[in-house]
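Before the break, one more example. Copy the sequence into your notebook; we will annotate it together after we see the structure.
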Amino acid sequence: MSTLHIDPGDRRGDYPLMNLADSTALITGAAGGIGRAAALRFAAAGAAVHLVDRDAGALSRVEAEVRDTGAAVSSTVADVTEPSEVAGFVQDARRHRGRIDAFFNNAGIEGPVADLAEYPIEGFDRVMAVNARGVFLGLRHVLPVMLAQGGGAIVNTGSLASERGLPGSGAYNASKHAVLGLTRTAAAEVARDNVRVNAVLPGMIDTRMLRSLAFELSGDVEAGLRFMGSVAPQARTGDADEVAAVVIFLCSDDASFVNGVGWPVDGGALATMPNSST
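Here is what the structure looks like once it is written out:
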């Protein structure tokens, strides 16, 4: 059984509180909105965290925020597209924390907005390198650690674009479909070894990435966000912490029989939107 567990002696009302004490979480893309929210959520649940991002300044700020909570924290500046750097941050996490109980394989970029007939080749290659190759490399280097230690939980970051074709986002769509394929493959391969692999599929979440896309699409960030939020029955954008809450659940023993799934965090968008929605 994973060391990520619910402590039955720690309760609020009739419900046990999540307790991830004595566990370690590794998070890539930790300086971004969802990565930062997950880092703070893991820390609040008692986990030690090892943070990874290529933006050294932003990573340092998030590390300081986590340290201020009293949690144990360490970090590595790394590019998830480079095998040697991925191997390096996995080694750093093990050196600082001893093991890796949870891995939030989260780093990603949005890429250019353009129709496929005009899509820049270099932009396509960069998005695929970060969003697909980066997730693969994370799995490639973390899975052996979890297999050797006897268990663990991985959450990859997909998107509602893992399940839909969004016009103007060909590279992003392709890369996030790949994330879901890698998630399902990994889950099938390691489930008998007490390692679970799932994905979160965020919808329109109010982060820097979505705000950049909103501006590119409409020239007005707030108007763009309102339009994007309207694709969900809840008629709003989501918050990074709402995604992080699902990540923590999927890494806990409360999700012990949840494996190989893409979990939408999208206000109901995937349940209701047609494939041709813009």
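The chain has one domain: 5-203+238-266. The domain at 5-203+238-266 is CATH 3.40.50.720 (Rossmann fold). Try to locate both features in your own notes.
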